[in-house]
Amino acid sequence: MTTTIAPTSSDTLRPNDLVCRLCKTPTPAAPVAICEHCLGPLDPAPNPDRVLPSRAVIESRAQSLWRYLEWLPFEGKPVHSLDTGFTPLVEAPRLAKRLGVAKCWVKNDAVSHPTLSFKDRVVATAINAAHAFGLDTIGCASTGNLANAVAAHAARAGLKAWIFIPADLEQGKVIGTQVYGPNLVRITGTYDDVNRLCAQIADHYGWGIVNVNLRGYYGEGSKTMAFEIAEQLGWRLPTAVVAPMAGGSLVTKLRKGFREFTEAELVQGTAPRIYGTQALGCAPIVNLVERDLDAIEPVVPNTIARSIAIGNPADGMFAKRAIVETGGSAAGVAEEAIVDGIRTLAEEVGIFTETAGGVTVAGALKLAQQGRFRADDEVVLCITGQGLKTVEAVIDPSLRPLPEAPVIAPRLREVKALVASMESRT
Ligand SMILES: Cc1ncc(COP(=O)(O)O)c(C=O)c1O
Ligand SMILES: [Zn+2]
After folding, report:
1. Claim to verify: residue 181 and residue 228 sit in the same structural domain
2. 180 and 100 in one domain?
3. Whose CA is nearest to atom 3 of ligand 1?
4. Closest-approaching ligand to the CA atom of 40
5. What distance in Å separates the CA atoms of residue 290 and residue 280, rounded to the nearest whole number?
6. Total tally of structural domains belonging to the chain
7. Does one domain contain both 151 and 224?
8. Confidence band (pLDDT; 50, 70, 90) for 426?
């Protein structure tokens, strides 16, 4: 039986109406994400008459992503996930040196609240849309991080959650979802199989599948990463930004966020060049950019970077446009380079990231080798997830595993022998 949920609006929160990104046809606010005329994606349309806040007003607000409310897809007050966002922007001078650029910062969503990835941002906006539409169940198709975020945000909002993931995800991603008590279902197949199934599930049950029928409201949450970078740099834009790509939404929304702050005359600087990175074992958007294709050629993923292993990315063409039109480029990296990237960020900046972050760091180093950066560049690396969720990557014996730590008895004599042997090696 197909259930149709009639949108109901809450007194305090109204989602913006939608407009097709391609044919510009407007659609009233609803849990739908595809234009019925041309099948293009639907984006929330901001109220053009809204009053935009000044820098000072934004700075006086609580340190969460809601301080940018006027650029998020609602009228009125959000009710859930009020404390997500405003992660640290960490200066990384040793990394800047390795990249041959003037300055480098890490936008550290490895410590995002509450589930340690940038997916907290997109779930924060999607769950408020679900609330405003009167939905009591949310869900997702996920490569892991989104599963963690939907489970946690639904748990504290008191909503039911149905979460669908590929059966073979890392233990940290599975347990980091299950612990919140959602309905977690492991599917035999790739993320792309899971995603197709979720489109049918959204139609059949009318649940709010955050990255399917709530996708327009979900995607806008990613812009807050751009807003925070600009504010944390002192209301300035960097000259280049490097980010990992899966479905391709994040890089598209970073560009949109920077553009919206420029249009609001809040920031100095020109539009940053956007660089997208993927693992070579799943690089459909890198192929699109490097070979200047007109459509995604889907691939079957084979990489340790499971969180960004999407073979048929929904926003691939838009990601290509964001990269090419800003003067950026794309880089694919090998499996060993991903582990090296994780270890480099840990050793040079003191941040332990997951495989997607390894892809970002390795991608940035590859872009530097290709001569894509200038000596006066100010580069931000978007580190989108936490290393403790993918420890498998840094102990994999076929890559560059961490050495085993020595085990000794609790005696000073043994410590002295160990220190002497270590010192003789250096
Ligand atoms: C850690 C991490 N980084 C980046 C991405 C890429 O996001 P997008 O699908 O918006 O391209 C994902 C997506 O799952 C992710 O989990
Ligand atoms: Zn359309």
Report:
1. no
2. no
3. 384
4. 2
5. 13
6. 2
7. no
8. confident
Ligand 2 mean position, distance from CA 39 (Å): 6
In a domain, 416, yes or no: no
Q: Which two tokens stand for residue 11?
A: 């007194």
Q: What are the C-alpha distances in Å from 359 to residues 246, 280, 307? A: 11, 10, 11
What is the CATH classification number for the domain harbouring 40? Answer: 3.40.50.1100
Q: Which candidate, 205, 199, 198, 150, places its Cα nearest to that of 178?
A: 150
Say whether both 164 and 32 belong to one domain. yes
Residue 135 has, within 13 A of its CA and on its CB side, a CA count of: 30
Q: How far is the CA of 302 from the centre of ligand 1 (A)?
A: 16
Q: What was the pLDDT predicted at 156? A: 97
Question: In what helix (H) or strand (E) does residue 366 lie, and over which residues does it extend?
Answer: helix 355-369
The domain in which residue 241 lies consists of 89-115+220-395
CA of 310, closest atom in ligand 1: 9
Structure tokens at 374: 């200038």
- Helices (H), ranges, 158-298: 171-178, 191-205, 215-219, 223-232, 249-263, 284-290
Is residue 96, in this structure, part of any structural domain at all?
yes
Contact 164, 182 (CB under 8 A): no
SS3 88: coil
pLDDT tens digit string along 323-349?
999 999 999 999 999 999 999 999 999
